[in-house]
Write a structure and sequence with these properties.
alpha+beta; 21% helix; four-stranded antiparallel beta sheet; globular; 107 residues; 29% strand; single chain
Length: 107
């Protein structure tokens, strides 16, 4: 917590390893209450994640289709999006704080 300068919420839900489940990651970052970044995704653990693509990624698709603001693309400058994130990742960069309550929370 750095006050209005920087706020970071990060939650990662790790399933019991005896199940073949993806990790659920949720991030919301706010910078100076002027710029925001959010990511919600079932993150793959292994290179061969075909089971998760069919079983879990589709759960994010209707949310992504409903909220245009969550259809952003991550820059390949920091991460290989195809390796660390699913195709249905919810991703947004925005400057209007209202997007958090209007789109992100209901999603």
């Amino acid at each position: 917590d750095a006050g209005d300068n920087t706020q970071v919420y990060n939650a990662v839900f790790y399933p019991d390893p005896k199940y073949n489940l993806p990790v659920l990651g949720i991030d919301l970052l706010a910078f100076n209450r002027k710029k925001y970044l959010t990511i919600v995704d079932f993150q793959p653990l292994h290179d061969d994640e075909e089971d998760h693509v069919m079983t879990y990624e589709h759960l994010l698709k209707p949310i992504k289709e409903k909220y245009d603001s969550l259809k952003g693309r991550m820059s390949s400058k920091f991460y290989d999006e195809t390796k660390f994130f699913s195709q249905e990742m919810l991703f947004a960069r925005f400057e209007n704080e209202e997007v958090v309550t209007r789109d992100l929370f209901p999603a």
